[in-house]
């Protein structure tokens, strides 16, 4: 009995994952056998479960390597998992009042979100190429289903099929890269790959393996040129599902990208640094210009997310602890802005249905001044204007690039931000200066709370959460170096 207790105590670093896995299975079984349970009740239970797991993660700061080295929990993993859990809970919350309208009023939606979140947490803590793949596929398979959950909608079905086909392609690339890395290093454990590279020096086969591996992960963060699925899937999927896609999975994939590059391929930083710089520049530039012609809100937000991935990669391009700290801060602020803007989108409804285009926002400031003000704040923050949170996010990653003499990359980033201001400010112009064309429905209470909270944090970032977040991110980055 004592040995059983000791064995269970040794699993302390994995308590959050174990709790989430058991909780998701219990929620699934209860929902299956309790025929009268509503999807809203299941979603509320799922939100509560995610918050409990988040509390366990933060209040039980256990670290270590488990399961024969394939699962690692360090400061970086705990930081990124906190963002994933917070993002998942927030996106479930903002979908409560819109589930029926968007065709996701089924208990399976909340269960699939829980399973996808579990996959993301495994991804963040993956210390082996095999556990990396298992976490990635657990997340992806759940996301394929929720993308096409509105089965009677042709756009949603198309989005699910596109995401599945291109996701399978990216998984194949990732596995091929993993097989090459294993063939040339003799190990699949992330922390042992670096030792093998140090002993045998760099080989062309290893470089090819690294390229395919990073290409597979780049698909998950929607970095150019692996972004082709993003606008169509964002537009076709139900809006609450799009909000989830834009938040938590991006953070998990970025955490995976950071761990693989900085830990596994540390000795060949110069090689992967060139790949990351290319992905960063391509993402920033393409998103800045491609979004200009968009009128559909979700397509515009898709290109916006591609651009922000590019900005985050500016920090990783530095290949330093300061750069990783900048990415960590950027992703936290990015999640807050993403949840806020999608809460605003979900809150807007006219007599014709949910607002889908920018032109439908005409006169919003006269009809719904609170929502218009929050959207304006978020647009200015997405541009990166001081003293809003978005400014400090970009400041951190550009500073890391400049410290490593990547001046051209930083300049391109600033210019891309200037170009992106056009389509962000266009939304503000339509809301405040165009004549109203429709009446807007009342805003649900939980969405008002989310919008107010995010707006407050974005405006007061420097004096409220700035210092604690920076300290947490600094500790997280330090655990990788």
How many discrete structural domains?
1
Strand content: under 5%
Measured between the Cα atoms of the first and last residue, the distance is 39 Å
How do the SSEs run, as a string of H and E? HHHEEHHHHHHHHHHHHEEHHHHHH
Question: Can you count the beta strands?
Answer: 4
Mean pLDDT over all positions: 88
Give the uncertain stretches in residue-range form: 1-5
Structural class: mainly alpha
Number of helices: 21
Shape: globular
- Radius of gyration (CA) equals 22 Å
Sheet having the most strands: 2 strands, antiparallel
Output the strand order for the largest sheet: 1-2
What level of helicity do the residues show?
over 70%
Detailed description of the structure:
Residues 126-419 form the NADH:quinone oxidoreductase/Mrp antiporter transmembrane domain. Keywords: Cell membrane, Membrane, NAD, Quinone, Translocase, Transmembrane, Transmembrane helix, Transport, Ubiquinone. The chain is mainly α and 481 residues long. The protein has one domain (11-478). Helix 4 (75-94) packs antiparallel against helix 11, helix 4 (75-94) runs parallel beside helix 15 and helix 18 packs antiparallel against helix 19. The relative contact order is 0.10. It is 74% helix and 2% strand. Residues 1-5 have low confidence and may be disordered. It has a two-stranded antiparallel ribbon.
In short:
74% of the residues lie in helices and 2% in strands.
Structure keywords:
481 residues; mainly alpha; two-stranded antiparallel sheet; 21 helices; 4 strands; globular; disordered N terminus; membrane; quinone binding; NADH-quinone oxidoreductase subunit N
